[in-house]
Amino acid sequence: MSRLERALVRLAGDLNALGARWALIGGLAVSVRAEPRTTRDVDVAIAVASEREAEDLVRGLRARGYRLLPFHFERRDDRLATVRMIAPGEGDEGVVVDLLFGSAGIEEEIVAAAEVLELSPGAVPVAAVGHLLALKVLAENDNRPFDRSDIRALLKVAGPQDVELARRSLELMERRGHGRGKHLLARFDSFLAST
Questions:
Q1: Secondary structure (3-state) at 123
Q2: Taking 80 as the threshold, does the pLDDT of residue 121 lie above it?
Q3: Is the CB of residue 11 less than 8 Å from the CB of residue 87?
Q4: Is 128 exposed, middle or buried (0-12, 13-18, 19+ CB in 10 A)?
Q5: Which of 18, 31, 83, 125 would give a disulfide with 114, using CB separation of 3.0 to 4.6 Å?
Q6: Listed residue (95, 148, 157) closest to 126, CA to CA
């Protein structure tokens, strides 16, 4: 088992023990849903009902050995959006764990639609293809080349329902003020046109 797989197994157990509602996203989820690729982090969307619930979860993970990275969190609308931590037992260059609480504005929907899949390390809730597409379109920029290749890989396996879910998710992101100044639907349409 690789360091990344061990970190995922540990994180899954810790999140479940802490009662978190979560789903795997990011490069690992793309590897599960579409095309394997390298990554050094574990990204998860976390659904929380309040800021306090997010803070309690971060405290719970810290008590279990996770370390906050410098510049470890991002706030949006004065709420915790993203927290970046190092997995237990890892050095400073070790496996990074990114917790997304409100970065995209659709974390609740992502978690609710996630499918529990049996992976080599065990059962893990994995975000739907449509949600992964939406997250990648939101994150994509000139400094993140993996996002573009991830979008292309996901579009190869996406059915019409996945494309529709991505479209609805991008609309929700923009409506909820999480579009980051991008024209998300236009960006998505340009990826669709190029495949």
A1: strand
A2: no
A3: yes
A4: buried
A5: 125
A6: 157
Q: Which residue carries 């529709």 as its tokens?
A: 164
Each domain of the chain, given as residue ranges in start order, spans 3-193
DSSP state of 115: E
Tell how far CA 143 is from the center of its chain: 18
Dihedral class, residue 98 (left if φ above 0, else alpha if ψ from -120 to 50, else beta)? beta
> Mean pLDDT over residues 163-181, rounded?
95
Q: Say if residue 176's pLDDT is above 90.
A: yes
What pTM did the predictor assign? 0.94
Any bridge partners for residue 84, and if so which?
98
CA–CA separation, 104 and 82 (whole Å): 10
The CA distance from 73 to 21, in Å, is: 19
Domain 3-193 has CATH 3.30.460.40: yes
- Alpha helices (H) along 64-194: 107-113, 129-139, 145-157, 160-175, 184-193
| Residue type, position 37, single letter | R
Cα separation, 88 vs 66, whole angstroms: 5
Euclidean distance between CA atoms 170 and 161, whole angstroms: 14
Task: Return d(Cα 22, Cα 169) in angstroms, integer.
Answer: 17
